[in-house]
Amino acid sequence: MSCYRFGFAMVLAMVAMTAASSRALAVSYASNITKTGTTVNFVLNSPADILSYSINGGAPVTLDGSTKGAKTFNLVNVNDTFSIVAERTDAAGYTTLTGNTVTGGGNKLFTDSPEAGLTVLSDDTSVLNRFSNPRGVSVSQNPNAPNFGTVYVANSANATGTPQLIAASGIYPERTVTGDGLYALRPDGADAFGYGNDAKNPTVEGFPAWVASSNNSPFRNYVADDGTIYVADFSDANGSLIQVQPDLNSAINVLPGFGGPTTLPVGQNHGSTTAVHVEGSLAAGNLKVYTIDEDLTSAQFVEGGSTTDQNSLWEYNIGSGPFPSAVVPTKIAEPLIPLATTDMERGADGKWYLMQTRNGALNSPTLFVVSADGSTVLFNSLEATRTLTANPTADRDILQYCNGVAVSPDQKWVALMLNIGDVAVIPLIDGIPDLANKRVINTDPDVISGRDIAFDAAGNIHYVSSGQGLYRVLAPGGHTKATTSWNGTEFVFGVETITTTPGLAGDFNADNVVDGADFLVWQRGGSPNPLSTGDLDLWKAHFGDVGSATGAVGAVPEPSSLIVSLLAMAGFATFRRRVA
What we know:
mainly beta, Neuraminidase, 6-stranded antiparallel sheet, 5 helices, globular
């Protein structure tokens, strides 16, 4: 073997897997990071084209990113800083259009929509992704939380202690789940704590946190910055708000008392809750909890107050606690429509996204965007429908049949869970939905009912559907670099989206740079003219060319291209040796 061939083989062994073509179509990122002495462990949520780490700002060292799951590396000294970079390029995702059309109609959006790319990151063949009656899903987004990236699914089995069979269907496997409660999945889809098919339903005040008498106990959930999970209970018998520890083994009532319905006991500061948002923490003394409440009215606290403002947005300024807190809440926003099932999300700039389920109702807006202080309605989807269609008397909202709402961490997208099980995605301009450019992901199979939706820190969409009996993760597509860094004090996370320069010559994998990875594409017959000398000459002539880059979810440094450059040089040397 010549030295050229030997050198090329060594470099290929180092990086062939990280430079391979895409597999799972996702934003790959390092999560669940722990640092013990000089050992760093983390979980890669999905395969990456390039996975590397850097110590103290030094040259990147490649890791095997061809598989998702647990990864590890060692520092030199316990005080070293480090960063982990996962890079991936995919042609399709919810940010791209397929050229097809998704028809509107019953249990869907009212009008036809362009189809967005379907890129399923989660494994539909995994039993861990099957649920009998899912109601809520949330993802830990804080890189400093112990469970960063962990996913929590609320399943209301309506038969505590009684196994429920989810029948196999096509590629979806059979599963038997037990009880009402929460399930936890690692970012790579593995069982986070090894609880298997048994829902976790910790004891609160001597009783299970959630009851079997309602399909909505538990309901939606939200992971706070400290990693604890706040769970809304929409049932009449057990209406509540529960805080659960990250491992799901213990819980406490956030607000005193249980239950609705509309007539609440004197002194009770809540009823049945449908959605929750949390800021701050007890430990920091700045905890604020926000709820949508089906039963609570102003008359509960103020003599002569309104008795018809159910489903308002309420703020509980709990501070340092303790739990359960009897603090009197402040109404932030007026109700949408009394007795409508509702959801909410808060954007990075403080705007509120308030959604109500108005399936087929006439003259009923589905989505509102409200100012941070709740004083101003900035967007009303029925009014936006009338403007877009130039029909001032239109009685049907385009955004009909929506059951859940989520906003991306960079506040560039709002996603809506449709009753049929599809997902509508709308770009945001200064936080306001651009309804004219909506698109729909056809998740297939279309079965009612889609239930809840959330984003992770990297911008992947997570949703649950009781009709499909599934939990799924959908990716945005495109070329992304996700960096998780330890600066000696805290973890910092960011995602950079690379905008490809159209027609960048020699960029056969469309990742906006002409490098060694493009040589591999050529070698495997993936260039426009497979294995042609012309394509190889084009690559040689433009080796090193780079397009433009645009930050998407926070600016992060671009890692060195040392490895792929070595690959390119070794590969070119081998080619020259062959043709000499």
